[in-house]
């Protein structure tokens, strides 16, 4: 078919290919085409944990810690965590996630063998904000997949608080390390580099070592407590899909996909979007909140939102650096007109016909631009136990799935990456719906608390993702004749606000880049954080439009985070 078996690209054959060989056997074929010498009836899939019993293994301590985790209103909960360098991801139990009540992100993932349950399915993840009981001011944030149960109680067998000489006087991460108890959170190798400290203390043979961590000294290794029988636990996450299914998926992505069938609510959502969305004079889009029915009464939400504001304010006052970022974020919100003071005449209207959103910070240290984002809690219940999100329809996501986008992106000879700056906040909300997007805010405690309403598509509302994606699809349809390359990319190469597209020549890639910039500018969107392995692509945009974490010239092994 004219496709090179070594790089899966067209235009040459394997013997002429300059790409690297198979990473498993070093032969001239792509790693995806490599077949292991295994039985054909063996089921291949992700492996994360297994346990086995033995009568000859001494009692072993795994590193555990009691950590403090912040919930959705800023309260701290003591949770027990397992520090596991053998796991490639972090996990949180469903019961712990429910206690924390943090915003959840869809993240469908198969996890095999966790807690000896065979194949578990994690449908969501949350961002955990963790602080230390031992070292004041220490904090780390990370994503964790929600699973029914992380692992069995640890340690496997009950021991005693042995007075090993080398651990005397240490501030232990888990003071009751010897007592079997549940594990709420597994902290994997993806975050351990931020948790572990260099200091390690080793004792005599048969005694555990002490590792200094962000949460205190964690004990791991053999313990001189006689027990029988023994259980060995191993936890490891390996996201390895079936090789045949992976290859089949690769060849199917260019075929015409079967049109997805919408649910009745999704059809109603799209119809509402088409009927109520308008273009403003400056080219911006304006949408309306998609209520499920005409009855919009929600109940009283003002007092609860006010209590939540005081809690967040107290948290900010304890952390000046966090407060500075938060204040700057909200100041920008006001300066750009994305929120404004509510007129005096609208302050004391019927509480049932309005809604107040609590808000809180979410940190993303990996971001090269916005480290902190303020998220608004539209799932906060009112006096009638109903939230704004309960009243809103949830629409379809009509973009391609992430795997399809990534594999097609790998096919391009000239790959491009970028993202839309403030995609949600550049889509306006109809003024009739502002009353359902009220918040409390003041920059410092000496000022009076003021009420604002949000005027753009808002993080935390269930309708926001679909509204934003449908706007991009509408842009693609409107400009498919005048900007055909941009139109095609908008339809199939965007995952939310992230663009992963490309071309097979530099000239075509530059034309695609210019079309995307132009067509999105017509709608008041800015495409920034450009990255590419081809310097000419970066040179075509101003420096402040480029990904700041990426050098202009990439070597063969250069990488950049795209999502």
UniProtKB/TrEMBL annotation:
Protein known as: Peptidase A2 domain-containing protein
Organism of origin: Allacma fusca
């Amino acid at each position: 078919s004219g496709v090179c078996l070594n790089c899966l690209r067209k235009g040459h054959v394997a013997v002429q290919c300059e790409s690297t060989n198979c990473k498993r056997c070093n032969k001239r074929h792509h790693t995806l085409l490599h077949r292991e010498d295994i039985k054909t009836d063996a089921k291949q899939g992700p492996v994360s944990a297994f346990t086995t019993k033995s009568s000859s293994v001494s009692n072993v301590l795994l590193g555990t810690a009691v950590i403090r985790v912040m919930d959705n209103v800023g309260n701290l909960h003591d949770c027990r965590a397992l520090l596991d360098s053998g796991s490639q991801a972090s996990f949180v139990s469903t019961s712990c996630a429910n206690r924390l009540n943090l915003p959840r992100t869809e993240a469908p993932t198969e996890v095999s063998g966790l807690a000896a349950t065979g194949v578990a399915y994690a449908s969501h993840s949350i961002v955990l904000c963790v602080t230390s009981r031992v070292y004041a001011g220490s904090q780390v944030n990370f994503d964790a997949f929600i699973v029914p149960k992380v692992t069995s109680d640890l340690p496997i067998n009950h021991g005693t608080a042995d007075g090993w000489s080398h651990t005397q006087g240490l501030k232990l991460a888990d003071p009751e390390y010897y007592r079997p108890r549940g594990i709420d959170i597994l902290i994997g190798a993806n975050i351990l580099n931020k948790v572990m400290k260099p200091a390690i203390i080793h004792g005599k043979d048969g005694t555990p070592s002490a590792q200094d961590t962000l949460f205190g000294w964690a004990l791991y290794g053999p313990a001189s407590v006689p027990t029988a029988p023994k259980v060995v636990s191993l936890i490891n996450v390996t996201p390895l899909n079936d090789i045949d299914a992976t290859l089949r998926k690769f060849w199917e992505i260019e075929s015409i996909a079967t049109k997805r069938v919408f649910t009745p609510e999704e059809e109603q959502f799209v119809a509402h979007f088409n009927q109520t969305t308008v273009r403003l004079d400056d080219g911006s889009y304006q949408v309306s909140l998609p209520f499920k029915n005409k009855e919009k009464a929600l109940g009283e939400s003002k007092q609860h939102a006010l209590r939540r504001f005081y809690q967040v304010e107290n948290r900010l006052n304890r952390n000046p650096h966090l407060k500075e970022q938060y204040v700057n974020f909200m100041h920008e919100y006001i300066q750009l007109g994305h929120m404004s003071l509510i007129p005096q005449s609208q302050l004391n209207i019927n509480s049932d016909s309005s809604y107040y959103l609590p808000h809180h910070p979410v940190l993303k240290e990996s971001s090269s631009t916005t480290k902190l984002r303020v998220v608004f809690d539209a799932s906060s219940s009112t006096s009638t136990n109903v939230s704004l999100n309960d009243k809103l329809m949830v629409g379809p996501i009509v973009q391609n799935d992430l795997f399809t986008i990534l594999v097609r992106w790998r096919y391009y000879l000239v790959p491009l990456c970028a993202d839309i700056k403030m995609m949600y906040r550049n889509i306006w909300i109809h003024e009739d719906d502002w009353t359902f997007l009220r918040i409390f805010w003041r920059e410092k405690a000496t000022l009076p608390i003021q009420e604002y309403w949000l005027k753009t598509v808002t993080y935390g509302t269930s309708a926001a993702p679909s509204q934003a994606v449908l706007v991009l699809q509408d842009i693609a349809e409107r400009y498919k004749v005048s900007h055909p390359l941009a139109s095609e990319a908008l339809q199939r190469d965007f995952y939310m606000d992230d663009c992963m597209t490309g071309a097979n020549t530099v000239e075509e890639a530059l034309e695609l880049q210019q079309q995307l910039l132009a067509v999105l500018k017509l709608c008041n969107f800015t495409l920034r954080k450009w990255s590419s392995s081809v310097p000419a692509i970066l040179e075509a945009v101003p420096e402040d439009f480029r990904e700041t974490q990426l050098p202009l010239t990439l070597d063969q092994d250069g990488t950049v985070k795209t999502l």
